[in-house]
Each structure stands twice: as C-alpha cells, then as structure tokens.
UniProtKB/TrEMBL annotation:
Documented EC number(s): 3.5.1.87
Keyword entries, A-Z: Hydrolase, Metal-binding, Zinc
Homology family: Belongs to the peptidase M20 family.
PANTHER family in the record: ALLANTOATE AMIDOHYDROLASE, ALLANTOATE DEIMINASE-RELATED
Binding, Zn(2+) 1: H94, D105, H204
EC top class, as a word: hydrolase
Cofactor binding note from Swiss-Prot or TrEMBL: Binds 2 Zn(2+) ions per subunit.
A GO MF term: N-carbamoyl-L-amino-acid hydrolase activity
Protein name: N-carbamoyl-L-amino-acid hydrolase
Pfam families: Peptidase_M20
Cofactors required: Zn(2+)
Binding site for Zn(2+) 2: D105, E140, H394
SUPFAM superfamilies: Bacterial exopeptidase dimerisation domain, Zn-dependent exopeptidases
Amino acid sequence: MNAPTPPSSLTPVGPRINSHRLWEHVCAMARIGATAKGGVNRQALTAEDTQGKTLLLQWASRRGYQTSIDPIGNLFIRRPGRNPGLSPVLTGSHLDSQPTGGRFDGVYGVLAGFEVLETLDDHGMETERPIELVVWMNEEGSRFPPPTMGSAVAAGALPLADALAIKDVSGIDVESALKAQVAELPVLEKRPLGMSGFAYIEAHIEQGPILENQACDVGIVTGIQGLHAYEIQLLGAEAHAGTTPLRHRKDALVAATTLIGYLRAAIDDPEDILRFTVGRLEVYPGSPNTVPGRVTFNIDLRHPDPDSLLRAGETILRLCAGEIEGCPVSAKVLLRSTPITFDDRVVATVRKAASGRAMKFLDIVSGATHDAKYTAQHIPTGMIFVPCEKGISHNEAENAREVDVAAGAQVLCDAMLAIMSEPL
Ligand code: GLV
Ligand code: MN
Ligand code: MN
C-alpha cells in the first residue's frame, strides 16, 4: 500500500539523528570479522562476536548507559527515563552474522537503536520511560541452530537448558561458548530471563528487492512469515570404498540425497511461496574412502500461511521416518514458529513516523525471520525495513545506502518517542 503524500504542514516530531555517526559505526562494526569479499563472518559466540559486543559496550560506557546480560547471553543497554518504575520502550537486533554474511543484517538494527539513545543525549532530551537496546544472542543460528535462539529462550519458547546444550559442528556447546564470551566482556549486571516492555520496534534491512524496486525510503513491516526448523539424521554403516560392492552398502549420503529429492518433490508449491532449504549437511566420518555412516542435515521451511506451513511440516515428518535405502531416518523439530502479525498500534505509529518525514513507504511482510517474532508474543511490536541493494542478503555482497540507513534510524527514533506518549 502506498501512503498518500503527507500534507506539507506535517512536521516531524523528534530530533534529527546523526547520520554521519551512524554510518561510522556501521563501518567500524564491518571491520570486525571482515572477509576478503567485503562481508563479515561474525558468527554467534565466536571471538569476532565478542569483539563486536565489546566495542558496542565501550561506546555505551562512554555514555554512562546501564548494561546487563541474561542467562542466554542477550545484552541490554539502558538509557534511564524520568520514571524508573515504568516499563521501557525497546529496540534491538543482533550482531552475529552468517559465515558469509553482510555488513548490515542485524548489526544495522543494533546501531540504529544505539543512534536513537545517543541522539536523545545530544539533544539533552529526557524521556518518561527508560529506553532499552537489546542485542539478541545468536539470531542467525548458523553456528548453533536454530535461529533467533536468544529471543526464543527469553520468550519461553525454547527451554534454557535445551539451548545451552546445542552443539556446533566441532562439538562445542552453547553453554561453554557463552561462558567464554562472558569472561571476555566487561563486567555486566546479571538479569533474569524474561520478555517485557512497553513496546518493541526493530530496524533491519529488507533482505529482499521490494523496497528498492519501488523506490521506497522505508518499509512498514506488518508481520513475519512462519518458520520451521528440522534436523534430520540418517544412519548407514561405514565401509571400505574400494572393497564394498554398491549393493552391499548402507550409504547414508546416497540415502540423504534421495530423501532430499523426495522432500522437494512432495512439498513442491506451484505458486513458489513455500521456502524449503537444506543449507547444512554433515557427513560422518567425512573421509573420501569410507562409505558415509551417518548424515545429519537441517531443513529451513517457511510460509506466511500457518496452515500451509503446518501441512508442509507434517509431510516432512512423515517422509523422514522409517528407512530409506537401508538407512533408518529420524527427524527432530528444532523450532516451529508460526507467522506473526505485528501490533496494529505500533505499526500505525511507525507508519505515521515515516509519513511525518515525508518519506515514501510501503507495508511489507518479512520473508526473513527476526527476534521481533518472539517479542511480539509478549510486547506490542513493530519493525522498520530499509532497502538493500538488489535484495541481496546472507551474502558478502550485501549492501545498503547511507541515506537509507539514516532514514530507517530517523523513523525508529521518531516512532520510539511517539509510542511513549501512547496509552498502549
Ligand atoms: C535470519 O537470519 C533468517 O534466517 O531469516
Ligand atoms: Mn537479521
Ligand atoms: Mn540473517
């Protein structure tokens, strides 16, 4: 939906953000875990992730903000309000990246939120409510699946103990990686798990081509499509590659590729709305001259309609059972998050903020997943998207323009201030 052109008498509500500073911060974070191809590799709970969080905490400490951490490693940076008894207005996103990630996915929302806090300081503005910036732990889920782990645990959708026990491919679990990270960070106040606040607004790059194609300044996000994550395992038998006839093998990799073919065919969507991805496959023991004895792979499944998503999920579970080519198959559900519709009043506030700055905008449903889907279960939530070049994301070539980055942060600042005065 395109907004009507705002009347010229419409004046913006808030102070101007410092777009130069915001861009400098984006560039500084992009140097941490920088890859040769211009992207970043700052996966959750790695040394690079720790470096990124350390830098942000240094900036926060210069401003005197209060900092705390919860048991799953979500970080909170708080700018106090006049009335400490009131629940905070929240913003946030994530600093972790894909292994071949870009310079904007997640980190942009964190830095846009930080820019709001600093802008208020620059203008000597007190707010009634505290404002809190959250850095969610392990949004990407590339090293430790599933994605949005920190917000899922905070929302009570994933038990803490289950999350802490999840291992990466080298056998390191979240618990020990998190302990190592916390030991490296400055001392932080400990806070209990939980998800509460007056409102939550997250800024993010779109990660798709719609806003750029329609020459929009920002997107008003109305919801997030659903996501299921599954882990599938096939058990074969290791055998000698030179001596074992093909007919006598239980080759877990051959069985896995056959199964993936069946799955794709069984859930084929002629409308191409359903998203089915196998992005990680582990072959054991991973030796060129041993027939694979075990394969584990992950399925990422998404759809904006809850029933279609559930149906496809049931098909996956039905096919990933029994035996295939002599190899027993089992499936584990890692995550089942239903499509989310954001709070009407928060969405309207974000729309009004964009309109107040005479921006061109569009309502949009997010194809990517975000921690906002879990905040939405407990806190009135909305999101702001900014265009990214050719919609490229989860790719080192991911790019966004300084002017768009600034526009999104400005809308975030205006919307957060506006929402404070609303009786939600
Ligand atoms: C987020 O990283 C997603 O996978 O959508
Ligand atoms: Mn993201
Ligand atoms: Mn991502």
